[in-house]
Amino acid sequence: MADTSKRRSDWTPGRLATLRLGLSGGIGPCRYAQLLDKFRNPEAALAGLIAMRRKDIAVATPADAAAAIKAAAQVGAGIVVRGDGDYPKSLAASARPPIFLYYSGALDRLDMRLVAIVGARNASLAARKFAEALAADLSAAGVGVVSGLARGIDGAAHRGSLEGFPVGVVAGGIDVTYPREHAKLQADIADRGVLLAESPVGAQPTERHFPRRNRIVAGLAAAVVVIEAAERSGSLITARFAMEEGRDVMAAPGFPTDPRAAGANRLIREGAVLIRSADDVLAELGAATAAAIPRARPAPAKIIGARPSADLSDLPFPEADDAPADPIEIVRAALAVAPVTVDELTRECQLSASVVAAVLQELELGGVLERLPGQRVTLR
To answer: Is the pTM of this model over 0.85?
Structure first.
Protein backbone atom coordinates (compact mmCIF):
# COMPACT_ATOMS: atom_id res chain seq x y z
CA MET A 1 0.00 0.00 0.00
CA ALA A 2 1.26 3.48 -0.79
CA ASP A 3 2.34 5.63 2.16
CA THR A 4 -0.51 8.01 2.83
CA SER A 5 1.17 9.74 5.76
CA LYS A 6 2.95 12.22 3.48
CA ARG A 7 -0.43 13.79 2.68
CA ARG A 8 -1.58 14.20 6.31
CA SER A 9 1.02 16.75 7.43
CA ASP A 10 1.20 18.73 4.18
CA TRP A 11 -1.76 21.02 4.86
CA THR A 12 -0.85 24.32 3.25
CA PRO A 13 -3.36 27.21 3.59
CA GLY A 14 -4.60 26.57 0.05
CA ARG A 15 -5.16 22.85 0.60
CA LEU A 16 -6.85 23.48 3.93
CA ALA A 17 -9.15 26.09 2.36
CA THR A 18 -10.10 23.60 -0.37
CA LEU A 19 -10.88 20.95 2.23
CA ARG A 20 -13.02 23.36 4.25
CA LEU A 21 -14.96 24.32 1.10
CA GLY A 22 -15.52 20.66 0.31
CA LEU A 23 -16.78 19.98 3.83
CA SER A 24 -19.13 22.99 3.81
CA GLY A 25 -22.84 22.30 3.63
CA GLY A 26 -24.33 23.57 0.38
CA ILE A 27 -21.03 23.49 -1.54
CA GLY A 28 -20.74 20.89 -4.28
CA PRO A 29 -18.47 20.60 -7.32
CA CYS A 30 -20.51 23.04 -9.42
CA ARG A 31 -20.72 25.77 -6.75
CA TYR A 32 -17.04 25.24 -5.96
CA ALA A 33 -16.18 25.90 -9.62
CA GLN A 34 -18.31 29.06 -9.55
CA LEU A 35 -16.48 30.29 -6.44
CA LEU A 36 -13.09 29.71 -8.05
CA ASP A 37 -14.21 31.56 -11.18
CA LYS A 38 -15.15 34.53 -9.01
CA PHE A 39 -12.36 34.53 -6.42
CA ARG A 40 -9.55 32.82 -8.39
CA ASN A 41 -8.15 30.65 -5.56
CA PRO A 42 -9.51 28.56 -2.67
CA GLU A 43 -8.30 30.85 0.12
CA ALA A 44 -9.98 33.91 -1.40
CA ALA A 45 -13.09 31.85 -2.16
CA LEU A 46 -13.33 30.72 1.46
CA ALA A 47 -12.86 34.26 2.78
CA GLY A 48 -15.42 35.62 0.32
CA LEU A 49 -17.91 32.92 1.25
CA ILE A 50 -17.56 33.71 4.95
CA ALA A 51 -18.06 37.41 4.23
CA MET A 52 -21.25 36.70 2.27
CA ARG A 53 -22.94 35.14 5.34
CA ARG A 54 -25.23 33.10 3.13
CA LYS A 55 -27.90 31.26 5.07
CA ASP A 56 -28.02 28.38 2.59
CA ILE A 57 -24.32 27.51 3.13
CA ALA A 58 -22.79 26.20 6.36
CA VAL A 59 -19.10 27.01 6.08
CA ALA A 60 -16.87 24.30 7.59
CA THR A 61 -14.65 25.51 10.43
CA PRO A 62 -10.95 24.78 10.97
CA ALA A 63 -12.10 22.30 13.63
CA ASP A 64 -14.26 20.50 11.04
CA ALA A 65 -11.25 20.18 8.73
CA ALA A 66 -9.03 18.97 11.57
CA ALA A 67 -11.63 16.33 12.48
CA ALA A 68 -11.81 15.06 8.89
CA ILE A 69 -8.00 14.83 8.66
CA LYS A 70 -7.82 13.01 12.01
CA ALA A 71 -10.62 10.59 11.02
CA ALA A 72 -8.82 9.72 7.78
CA ALA A 73 -5.53 9.14 9.61
CA GLN A 74 -7.24 6.87 12.15
CA VAL A 75 -8.38 4.48 9.39
CA GLY A 76 -5.07 4.64 7.51
CA ALA A 77 -6.37 6.83 4.69
CA GLY A 78 -5.17 10.06 3.10
CA ILE A 79 -7.05 13.01 1.63
CA VAL A 80 -6.35 14.44 -1.82
CA VAL A 81 -7.92 17.78 -2.79
CA ARG A 82 -8.54 19.58 -6.07
CA GLY A 83 -5.37 21.29 -7.17
CA ASP A 84 -3.02 18.66 -5.69
CA GLY A 85 -0.44 17.35 -8.12
CA ASP A 86 -1.57 13.79 -7.46
CA TYR A 87 -5.29 14.47 -7.90
CA PRO A 88 -6.29 12.15 -10.80
CA LYS A 89 -5.97 14.13 -14.04
CA SER A 90 -8.79 12.34 -15.86
CA LEU A 91 -11.16 12.99 -12.96
CA ALA A 92 -10.07 16.64 -12.71
CA ALA A 93 -10.93 17.04 -16.41
CA SER A 94 -14.51 15.79 -15.86
CA ALA A 95 -17.51 18.09 -15.47
CA ARG A 96 -18.17 17.46 -11.74
CA PRO A 97 -14.94 16.31 -10.06
CA PRO A 98 -15.10 15.85 -6.28
CA ILE A 99 -13.58 18.72 -4.29
CA PHE A 100 -11.61 16.15 -2.31
CA LEU A 101 -11.36 12.39 -1.95
CA TYR A 102 -10.35 9.98 0.76
CA TYR A 103 -7.95 7.36 -0.54
CA SER A 104 -5.98 4.32 0.52
CA GLY A 105 -3.33 2.84 -1.73
CA ALA A 106 -1.27 3.91 -4.73
CA LEU A 107 -2.93 7.20 -5.60
CA ASP A 108 0.02 8.21 -7.79
CA ARG A 109 -0.78 5.44 -10.30
CA LEU A 110 -4.26 6.69 -11.14
CA ASP A 111 -3.03 8.54 -14.22
CA MET A 112 -2.38 5.25 -16.01
CA ARG A 113 -4.95 4.12 -18.59
CA LEU A 114 -8.07 2.88 -16.78
CA VAL A 115 -11.15 1.03 -18.01
CA ALA A 116 -14.33 0.76 -15.94
CA ILE A 117 -16.25 -2.53 -15.93
CA VAL A 118 -19.79 -2.30 -14.54
CA GLY A 119 -22.99 -4.30 -14.77
CA ALA A 120 -25.78 -6.17 -13.05
CA ARG A 121 -25.62 -7.09 -9.39
CA ASN A 122 -27.73 -10.18 -10.04
CA ALA A 123 -25.53 -11.12 -13.01
CA SER A 124 -25.47 -14.64 -14.41
CA LEU A 125 -22.52 -16.91 -13.70
CA ALA A 126 -21.48 -16.71 -17.35
CA ALA A 127 -21.46 -12.91 -17.25
CA ARG A 128 -19.44 -12.86 -14.04
CA LYS A 129 -16.88 -15.27 -15.52
CA PHE A 130 -16.65 -13.08 -18.61
CA ALA A 131 -16.17 -9.92 -16.52
CA GLU A 132 -13.44 -11.56 -14.43
CA ALA A 133 -11.62 -12.86 -17.51
CA LEU A 134 -11.95 -9.48 -19.25
CA ALA A 135 -10.50 -7.68 -16.23
CA ALA A 136 -7.64 -10.19 -15.99
CA ASP A 137 -6.74 -9.76 -19.67
CA LEU A 138 -6.90 -5.97 -19.48
CA SER A 139 -4.72 -6.06 -16.38
CA ALA A 140 -2.19 -8.31 -18.14
CA ALA A 141 -2.05 -5.72 -20.93
CA GLY A 142 -1.19 -2.97 -18.43
CA VAL A 143 -4.64 -1.39 -18.15
CA GLY A 144 -6.08 -0.61 -14.72
CA VAL A 145 -9.65 -1.69 -13.97
CA VAL A 146 -12.16 0.51 -12.13
CA SER A 147 -15.47 -0.52 -10.61
CA GLY A 148 -17.79 0.25 -7.72
CA LEU A 149 -17.44 -2.80 -5.42
CA ALA A 150 -21.08 -3.85 -5.83
CA ARG A 151 -22.10 -7.47 -6.07
CA GLY A 152 -22.16 -9.25 -9.41
CA ILE A 153 -20.16 -7.74 -12.26
CA ASP A 154 -18.33 -5.18 -10.10
CA GLY A 155 -17.01 -7.83 -7.74
CA ALA A 156 -16.00 -10.12 -10.62
CA ALA A 157 -14.14 -7.30 -12.35
CA HIS A 158 -12.26 -6.44 -9.15
CA ARG A 159 -11.29 -10.07 -8.57
CA GLY A 160 -10.03 -10.38 -12.12
CA SER A 161 -7.87 -7.28 -11.79
CA LEU A 162 -6.15 -8.09 -8.49
CA GLU A 163 -2.96 -9.17 -10.26
CA GLY A 164 -2.88 -5.81 -12.03
CA PHE A 165 -4.00 -2.40 -10.75
CA PRO A 166 -7.51 -2.56 -9.25
CA VAL A 167 -9.36 0.68 -8.49
CA GLY A 168 -12.39 0.57 -6.21
CA VAL A 169 -14.76 3.48 -5.64
CA VAL A 170 -17.03 3.02 -2.63
CA ALA A 171 -20.30 4.86 -2.04
CA GLY A 172 -19.94 5.13 1.74
CA GLY A 173 -16.96 5.92 3.92
CA ILE A 174 -13.61 4.47 2.95
CA ASP A 175 -13.67 2.37 6.12
CA VAL A 176 -17.16 0.97 5.51
CA THR A 177 -17.63 -2.37 3.76
CA TYR A 178 -20.67 -2.67 1.53
CA PRO A 179 -21.81 -5.25 0.66
CA ARG A 180 -20.55 -7.03 3.75
CA GLU A 181 -19.07 -10.02 1.89
CA HIS A 182 -16.64 -7.76 0.02
CA ALA A 183 -14.54 -6.94 3.10
CA LYS A 184 -11.51 -8.96 1.98
CA LEU A 185 -11.88 -7.80 -1.62
CA GLN A 186 -12.01 -4.16 -0.50
CA ALA A 187 -8.86 -4.64 1.60
CA ASP A 188 -7.09 -6.37 -1.30
CA ILE A 189 -7.88 -3.45 -3.61
CA ALA A 190 -6.36 -0.98 -1.14
CA ASP A 191 -3.26 -3.20 -0.82
CA ARG A 192 -2.74 -3.82 -4.54
CA GLY A 193 -4.27 -0.74 -6.15
CA VAL A 194 -6.23 2.17 -4.72
CA LEU A 195 -9.52 2.60 -2.88
CA LEU A 196 -11.42 5.91 -3.17
CA ALA A 197 -14.36 7.49 -1.34
CA GLU A 198 -16.07 10.86 -1.50
CA SER A 199 -18.25 10.27 1.57
CA PRO A 200 -16.91 11.00 5.07
CA VAL A 201 -15.15 8.34 7.12
CA GLY A 202 -17.74 6.13 8.78
CA ALA A 203 -20.59 7.18 6.44
CA GLN A 204 -23.10 4.44 5.63
CA PRO A 205 -24.12 4.39 1.93
CA THR A 206 -27.56 5.69 1.02
CA GLU A 207 -29.35 5.92 -2.32
CA ARG A 208 -28.03 9.40 -3.10
CA HIS A 209 -24.42 8.25 -2.69
CA PHE A 210 -24.45 5.71 -5.53
CA PRO A 211 -24.92 8.06 -8.51
CA ARG A 212 -22.12 10.21 -7.04
CA ARG A 213 -19.90 7.12 -6.91
CA ASN A 214 -20.85 6.26 -10.50
CA ARG A 215 -19.75 9.66 -11.78
CA ILE A 216 -16.33 9.10 -10.19
CA VAL A 217 -16.03 5.66 -11.81
CA ALA A 218 -16.85 7.19 -15.21
CA GLY A 219 -14.62 10.21 -14.63
CA LEU A 220 -11.56 8.09 -13.88
CA ALA A 221 -11.90 5.81 -16.90
CA ALA A 222 -10.95 6.22 -20.53
CA ALA A 223 -13.79 3.81 -21.35
CA VAL A 224 -16.74 2.17 -19.60
CA VAL A 225 -17.66 -1.44 -20.39
CA VAL A 226 -21.20 -2.53 -19.49
CA ILE A 227 -21.99 -6.21 -18.96
CA GLU A 228 -25.56 -7.39 -18.23
CA ALA A 229 -27.34 -4.21 -17.23
CA ALA A 230 -31.10 -3.94 -16.97
CA GLU A 231 -33.03 -1.11 -18.62
CA ARG A 232 -33.11 0.91 -15.39
CA SER A 233 -29.85 0.40 -13.56
CA GLY A 234 -26.95 2.21 -11.98
CA SER A 235 -24.69 0.83 -14.70
CA LEU A 236 -26.54 2.84 -17.33
CA ILE A 237 -26.11 5.93 -15.14
CA THR A 238 -22.36 5.29 -15.25
CA ALA A 239 -22.53 4.88 -19.03
CA ARG A 240 -24.46 8.14 -19.34
CA PHE A 241 -21.86 9.98 -17.27
CA ALA A 242 -19.15 8.53 -19.54
CA MET A 243 -20.99 9.70 -22.66
CA GLU A 244 -21.33 13.20 -21.19
CA GLU A 245 -17.58 13.27 -20.57
CA GLY A 246 -16.78 12.09 -24.08
CA ARG A 247 -15.38 8.77 -22.86
CA ASP A 248 -15.81 5.56 -24.85
CA VAL A 249 -18.81 3.40 -23.96
CA MET A 250 -18.69 -0.31 -24.76
CA ALA A 251 -21.04 -3.18 -24.00
CA ALA A 252 -21.07 -6.97 -24.13
CA PRO A 253 -24.16 -8.29 -25.95
CA GLY A 254 -26.57 -10.49 -24.05
CA PHE A 255 -29.40 -12.83 -24.94
CA PRO A 256 -32.35 -10.80 -26.31
CA THR A 257 -34.96 -12.12 -23.88
CA ASP A 258 -32.83 -11.84 -20.73
CA PRO A 259 -33.93 -8.66 -18.89
CA ARG A 260 -30.47 -8.42 -17.34
CA ALA A 261 -29.07 -7.77 -20.82
CA ALA A 262 -31.71 -5.30 -22.01
CA GLY A 263 -29.76 -2.19 -21.03
CA ALA A 264 -26.46 -3.34 -22.50
CA ASN A 265 -28.16 -4.42 -25.72
CA ARG A 266 -29.85 -1.04 -26.00
CA LEU A 267 -26.51 0.71 -25.58
CA ILE A 268 -25.14 -1.28 -28.52
CA ARG A 269 -28.19 -0.46 -30.61
CA GLU A 270 -27.66 3.22 -29.82
CA GLY A 271 -24.00 3.20 -30.85
CA ALA A 272 -21.94 1.72 -28.02
CA VAL A 273 -19.02 -0.42 -29.18
CA LEU A 274 -19.81 -4.15 -29.07
CA ILE A 275 -17.07 -6.02 -27.26
CA ARG A 276 -16.40 -9.76 -27.07
CA SER A 277 -12.98 -9.78 -25.43
CA ALA A 278 -10.16 -7.59 -24.15
CA ASP A 279 -8.87 -7.50 -27.74
CA ASP A 280 -11.91 -5.46 -28.74
CA VAL A 281 -11.49 -3.04 -25.82
CA LEU A 282 -7.79 -2.54 -26.47
CA ALA A 283 -8.29 -2.14 -30.20
CA GLU A 284 -10.85 0.58 -29.57
CA LEU A 285 -8.52 2.33 -27.14
CA GLY A 286 -5.50 1.79 -29.36
CA ALA A 287 -3.64 0.48 -26.33
CA ALA A 288 -2.25 -2.82 -27.61
CA THR A 289 -2.50 -5.49 -30.27
CA ALA A 290 -4.33 -8.74 -29.69
CA ALA A 291 -1.08 -10.70 -29.90
CA ALA A 292 0.37 -8.77 -26.95
CA ILE A 293 -2.22 -9.93 -24.42
CA PRO A 294 -1.16 -12.78 -22.08
CA ARG A 295 -4.16 -14.91 -21.18
CA ALA A 296 -4.43 -14.62 -17.41
CA ARG A 297 -7.15 -16.49 -15.57
CA PRO A 298 -6.73 -15.99 -11.80
CA ALA A 299 -8.90 -18.03 -9.49
CA PRO A 300 -11.66 -16.07 -7.75
CA ALA A 301 -10.64 -14.77 -4.33
CA LYS A 302 -12.24 -16.21 -1.24
CA ILE A 303 -14.86 -13.81 0.06
CA ILE A 304 -15.25 -13.13 3.76
CA GLY A 305 -17.21 -10.49 5.61
CA ALA A 306 -15.84 -7.87 7.99
CA ARG A 307 -16.94 -4.47 9.24
CA PRO A 308 -20.27 -4.65 7.38
CA SER A 309 -22.45 -1.66 6.74
CA ALA A 310 -26.22 -1.70 6.97
CA ASP A 311 -27.79 -3.82 4.23
CA LEU A 312 -29.10 -1.05 2.00
CA SER A 313 -30.27 -1.00 -1.59
CA ASP A 314 -27.89 0.50 -4.15
CA LEU A 315 -30.47 2.35 -6.22
CA PRO A 316 -34.26 2.21 -6.39
CA PHE A 317 -34.02 -0.01 -9.48
CA PRO A 318 -34.95 -3.66 -10.04
CA GLU A 319 -31.32 -4.82 -9.62
CA ALA A 320 -31.11 -3.91 -5.93
CA ASP A 321 -28.01 -4.88 -3.99
CA ASP A 322 -29.80 -7.33 -1.73
CA ALA A 323 -28.76 -10.91 -2.42
CA PRO A 324 -31.62 -13.40 -3.01
CA ALA A 325 -32.09 -15.77 -0.08
CA ASP A 326 -34.24 -18.44 -1.76
CA PRO A 327 -32.16 -21.27 -3.35
CA ILE A 328 -34.30 -21.22 -6.51
CA GLU A 329 -33.67 -17.48 -6.91
CA ILE A 330 -29.93 -17.94 -6.28
CA VAL A 331 -29.56 -20.69 -8.88
CA ARG A 332 -31.90 -18.99 -11.37
CA ALA A 333 -29.93 -15.74 -11.10
CA ALA A 334 -26.66 -17.55 -11.85
CA LEU A 335 -28.00 -19.23 -15.00
CA ALA A 336 -28.02 -17.78 -18.50
CA VAL A 337 -28.23 -19.08 -22.05
CA ALA A 338 -24.47 -19.65 -21.99
CA PRO A 339 -23.97 -23.23 -20.70
CA VAL A 340 -22.27 -23.83 -17.33
CA THR A 341 -21.40 -27.08 -15.60
CA VAL A 342 -23.35 -28.20 -12.57
CA ASP A 343 -20.12 -28.22 -10.54
CA GLU A 344 -19.39 -24.58 -11.44
CA LEU A 345 -22.94 -23.64 -10.58
CA THR A 346 -22.74 -25.37 -7.20
CA ARG A 347 -19.47 -23.65 -6.29
CA GLU A 348 -20.68 -20.23 -7.40
CA CYS A 349 -24.01 -20.44 -5.59
CA GLN A 350 -22.38 -21.76 -2.40
CA LEU A 351 -25.16 -24.29 -1.96
CA SER A 352 -24.94 -28.03 -1.35
CA ALA A 353 -24.92 -30.32 -4.38
CA SER A 354 -28.21 -31.88 -3.29
CA VAL A 355 -29.95 -28.49 -3.07
CA VAL A 356 -28.66 -27.44 -6.51
CA ALA A 357 -29.75 -30.79 -7.99
CA ALA A 358 -33.25 -30.33 -6.57
CA VAL A 359 -33.50 -26.77 -7.91
CA LEU A 360 -32.28 -27.81 -11.36
CA GLN A 361 -34.85 -30.60 -11.45
CA GLU A 362 -37.61 -28.14 -10.55
CA LEU A 363 -36.46 -25.68 -13.23
CA GLU A 364 -36.26 -28.49 -15.78
CA LEU A 365 -39.76 -29.67 -14.96
CA GLY A 366 -40.90 -26.06 -15.31
CA GLY A 367 -39.55 -25.98 -18.85
CA VAL A 368 -36.99 -23.20 -18.29
CA LEU A 369 -33.83 -25.35 -18.04
CA GLU A 370 -32.12 -27.54 -20.63
CA ARG A 371 -29.51 -30.18 -19.81
CA LEU A 372 -26.57 -30.56 -22.20
CA PRO A 373 -23.80 -33.17 -22.53
CA GLY A 374 -20.89 -32.90 -20.12
CA GLN A 375 -23.05 -32.15 -17.06
CA ARG A 376 -23.84 -28.68 -18.43
CA VAL A 377 -27.07 -26.75 -18.07
CA THR A 378 -28.52 -23.69 -19.74
CA LEU A 379 -31.70 -21.65 -19.75
CA ARG A 380 -34.10 -22.32 -22.58
So the answer is: no
